[in-house]
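Fold this complex.
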Amino acid sequence: MKQLKTKLWILACVLFVIGTPFLALGASYYEGKTLTIVVGYKPGGGYDRYARLLAKYLPKHLPGNPTVVIQNMPGANSIIGANHIYSVAKPDGLTIGTFNNALATAQLTKVEGVKFDLTKFAWLGSLASDAVIMVIRSDLPYKTVDDMRKAKEIVIGTTGPGSSTHDFPSILKEFTGLNFKLVPGYSSSADVMLAIERKEVDGRAGSYDSIKPFIDRGLVRPVIRNRISAPGIEKLPVDEELTKDPKGRAIMAVNAAPTKIYRPYVAPPGTPADVVKILRSAFVSVTKDTEFLAEAKKSKMTIDYALPEEALKVVREVLNQPPEMAQEIGKYIKFGE
Amino acid sequence: MKSVFNLRFLLALAVAIIAGYALYASLYWPFRTALFPRVIGVPLLALSLVEMLLCLVSAEKAREGHAVDFEMTMDVDPLVARKRTLAIFSWTLGFMALILLFGFTLAVPLFVFLYLKLAGKEGWVLSLSMTALSWLTMEGLFNRLLHLPFPEGWLFSLWT
Amino acid sequence: MLDAFVQGLLVVLQWQTFLVMLLGIVLGFWVGLLPGLGGSTTLALMLPFIYKMTPVEAFAFLLGMHSVVSTTGDITSVLFGVPGEGTTAATILDGHAMAKKGEAGRALGAALMSSLVGALVGAFALALAIPVVRPLVLTFGAPELFMLAVVGIAFISSLSGQGGRALLRGFLAGLLGLLIALVGQDPQAGVQRFTFSQLYLWGGLDLIPVLVGLFAVPEIVDLAVRGTSIAGELPQGNLGKGAWEGVKDTFRHFWLTIRCSLIGTFIGIIPGLGGGVAQWIAYGHAVQAARDSKEREGFGKGDVRGVLGPGAANNSKEGGALIPTIAFGVPGSSAMAILLGAFFLQGLAPGPDMLDKHLTLTFSMVWTMVIANIITVATSFFFLNQLAKLTLVRGAVLIPFILFLAFIGSYTSNNHLGDLIVFLFFGFLGYFMIRCNWPRAPLVLGFVLGKIAENNFYISTIRYGSSWLLRPVVLILVLLTLIVIVYPAIRLGKRRSAPSEKTA
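Structure:
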């Protein structure tokens, strides 16, 4: 009897010693705690909506089922938020963040105020990719790019340098010889859409996801896309194919690259590796969660998860451009609000 | 009266300086960027110089006419008014300092308590209950419910 | 269409929808009251909750909340001089001034009743405009928007006060406001203007910290200096009965209230003008209703018409703003931008379909706005007397509370310490402006219209060269600008000649 008791005790001790690390990191790490997602934009925008959807389903996939809350830190097109996650947020796994995918370009072109190094973040992946396309009003006679080349002038409305509405056409104009007349100053891309309806402008560029409802409605017709493809626009001519200038191609490639990781998520640099592992597996499993995907679909948010390694690869691709290239890029892709 | 016209003069001067700076900065900008700042800056500078001149030349308050806005109360003795104005400005800036040092969540109840006790000379019961109420609002509404990001007070980041 | 009209009402009155709308109303009541709890932010926070609701319930909830915010925001503005919402700042000028004269009840009554009238006009306009909305919105392009901004700026002359000196200062304030609006990144060349290397300033200055600083701080200083309660040393009799007086005022100046509601609706319909503008133009128009220079000078010091105008306009503009949102998917205000998210969440696409297939849903929105406002105003009337009593509380007790609200209200703009610095800066500026007899309203007007003017000017010139100046609506608006500038002078000129004839 005594022997059995001893054996049981030894067994218990052994289990305890082996099991504790798993218990500690697994179930009890997030137990009773709150995970904060810092969003670099105000409530209501695209990044915010993705984050809130994530916040709703992530707890189930994290051991300990923590509460997940959102904190908005808008400003300077999410540079303020990114700076915060980089140097102010504690690297204890209780804070993660999301910001503009184009920050890679901002870091490359040494935009003033950037205080982070994207490669040093603990990457968690990206929830979606997005294609940038150019559309023109359906009632215009141009059906192909060649038609457009013959046109005297195509008026493109934009929201100003530093947004995809402006940079995409501006690069096209410079390198493909299309006669675009850029009209900046619209307060939002929705206003540009209205201007198209008013026949004030002929077309615009922007994210495929946000323009899709208008294509479906028949208001506009897509004509060009960047190298990221998406269902429905695979056959469109790619901007890089429209120019023979290698410099132009390189700039377009750099402009397009970050859209592959359109909704990036990171943890602060220095977050312990085992915690990052938990977070990463949580991301992988939440993006497979059928309820999550269903709600995303209903809210018209595409989910197209990119693994952390892929995300980091894209970032490095942009950042490893030689300095002369960086300067050229800086001329066409201005970073802005 | 003299102090009044000095203040008006200073405000006009400040605005003139702002206009001047705007015009100066616009020299370095491309045409379109600079157009509106100049179109606004030139009349702003001109008018503020006119105002400065008028402040120096005629200090007649009665003839000025009234702005479509409220006016500071005249019922209180000017010296007392000045003292109280300085006091409230100090308290406001003090509140800001408290927020910077202690972080929002602590600064608010601290300020409420200090103001009620020191400036208001209110009783303990009222002060403490208002302090508790303000702390509850900060913690309950703004922190727990809305999860507003409040930066840590400087005093606390010295520790960690 | 008529049956959709009736159907819309019935659908809102179903008990689940009604309950959910009541929930929205309660939420909206507090959101409007508390500065810093912005209507738009809260709308965004509520979005995840509507996932499981039907479209009618979802919009009853969201609109129930949202349409109430401008009404209760007026309460905070009147009682404490702190804008409860960005759209209720203009109510402070005369509303809070009345509170200081012991007429808080009357001001509240006027604000609430005019809010109700405004909401009804806005909802009515929404219902009526449905057939004509598309051509209406499509006619107003960038040139027309620029001219509208110019018309708005012309109101500076009305908001300045009497006399050459007052006019000079009004223009100084207006120009300063226009200049401040230019802070941030310029959309033409991407150059950072006046940002002093601060990331915070890239997007320009946000309206809320500026307004809260400009209006709340001088009132707080005044309260501290007086050393009394907000209502001062006056007898308490007036407060309770005052509310009814305020209601009567709304009907005494009925046409003014209606006109200001229409102004608000119109500004709401035109996407691109933004929420802050309507209340100030309505206020400017109310000032123009003054019959002589003495009355003019009474504005800003407690003329009830200064409460009626903005009170009506800030509610009617919400009805107006719903129109382009539903019909085009272009938000008429920042809150509408978030509402658009709700559309997508519900699987709806704003556009011609909403005026066609989903007409019942659209009408249910109209009814929600009507019913929500009626309920809010009716319930508020029960509390008005108690609320008005707050103006009897010792200033020293209220001040920390008001300062707290002002600080946190500004902070929630960007969740950044920069918000507080902007608040303090404009607080000092507002105080000095009052001391030096500079009107603040023109500054705000310049500030909200600056970017609209600049952006649309460039869009017009780049797109149309100079031919846009000859467009019919543009010419009409040029005429309107001249009328706005010249009208007060004519009116006063007429009055001046009449009394002198009497004395002769």
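Chain C touches chain A through 53 residues (CB under 8 Å).
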